[in-house]
Give the backbone structure.
Amino acid sequence: MKEENTHIDDLILDYLTGEISEEGKAQLSEWLAASEENMALFARRQEVWMGAGQLVTNFDADRAFSIFRRRTMHKSENDEPKWGECYLSHTREMFQWAAAILMPLLVTSTLYFYLQVKDYFSEQIVVSTIEGQSSTFQLPDGTLILLQQNSRLTYGSGDFSRGKRNVEFSGEAYFNVESDESHPFVITTSDSRITVVGTEFNLKSRDGEKTGVISLDKGKVNIASLKGNSSFKMTEGDEVTINRVTHKMTNRHRTPEEVAESAMARNASHSEHPLSLEGIDKENGNYKMTVVVNKPLNPGIYEMNLSDSSQIAPSSSNNLFQSGKGTASDPYIIATTRQLCNMRYALVKRKLVYFALAEDIDLKGINWKPLNTYTNEYAHWISLDGRNHVIRNLTPTLSCSYSSFFGVLCGECKNVGFEDVNISSVGLGAGVLGGYIGHHTYPGTTLIENCYFTGRVSSKSYAGAIGGNIGGKTIIRGCCSSVDVNSIDSYAGGLIGKVHASLTMEECICLGSVAGHHAGGIVGGGYDSDTPTSRFTDVIACNRSVYGTLDSDAFGFTDLKATKRNVFHAKGTFLNGNCLNDGLSTAQLKEKRDSWRRQWYRGRASR
């Protein structure tokens, strides 16, 4: 029975993608005619499938109707006059009516649809390094990768949660693959496919070079040429060379000395902080030396106190930032990417440190590490004033805690835009600003004001454009987001994933799509019995779609422990695949927005 269901699912997928054969059509028709139960099952899924495409992008009714015509009535694009003016003015309505008639051939089973919904948010995650930069990171399955300079690895964000361990690779890297015999790890390069279970090896496959090399240290590897007929089953110590011109592969066994030399060279190339000595001075009985950190991600000038408890610390703020003292009246001024990375070296536990941007900052190519996490006891309190500047291409380290810019935001963030963020987390809590917004150890109120956000946020649980969780008293006002949000296992909200503490939200709007177990246009939900009442005033949910596998809401939640005034959602939002008829039109929502006292920084997120 299981094999039969799988075969039917495959036939339905082939039909939906336009690849079904005539034999497949006959088999599918026979199955549909077998029982009313089959027909009823499909009928219950029709509207869900019809709205699935809304999860990521706006519904293209013209294209959908064109496909419908070609597949069901064999009409060509040149048959337009036969459809007349009715088609031009009522395309969406006609498509839905026609699809309802042919619904058995336009839907799929519940399980398959659930996996397909995940695929809509299984966007490509790209990890890359630039000249002079190496990076160590961990994939969701636990596989460790040491990525060398000018290298690139790509994989689907949702694949690993379903046991599909497939990546695409170009460059050079050392792989320590987590063992899982039932789910092989597959690497595809431009000319080969490498299949492993649990092993350690170095792979060099750079586009433009005449050869590629894989050197196996532990385990077993199967490698096959994609452009030739050769393949090898490698064992420990083997080294396969691929000729990119002839597409032939050769295998040799390395000597123990070669293996040892390769390991030594690899370890040396991944020295964490190469330091160069600039000078040593004696002061107050201790020796001090100034060292220059040449590492691209964490540059700066430091002093080392040579005492019984030696440690590296920033020598002065003048070496880390353009100017400033880190106070409210004289904040540290940040004008370069390097200075933004230096923020972490100026933080002091349980003291509010002030920063301000003087220029737009681009973080492309940098695996950003959050500034405030459990490693420092959530004790870094930060104020960032963007002064109407933008931070672009924020991409936090994949395996980091509370994947975001701040990690846990305790303090304030205002007057800044975050454009083209790409956040994918395998842990708890993810958002542009924080996995948590506020914390019970922070005595003040966290403020987020006059900010906007674009890009995507995907997390195993608790995901929101601004933050994954509200963990302390928080005020959010004058903010706008067009971030698409996805939580695989739990709460997803257009702005906030889950609320655990008092939240006040004023004059905010969300334009992105949302999907998760518990999904909401603004807030995913998550109120506990002891959660204080929150207040929402002048808030608009203008999401393209909201999809929840357990429950969802056009605005965000239906909990009674929140007061709402002038809270609206858009007419036409796809909620669980169904187009909502209630709500306000785009023009009405714009009129509401324009009446607010505050406007978003440059309004660029709403373009």
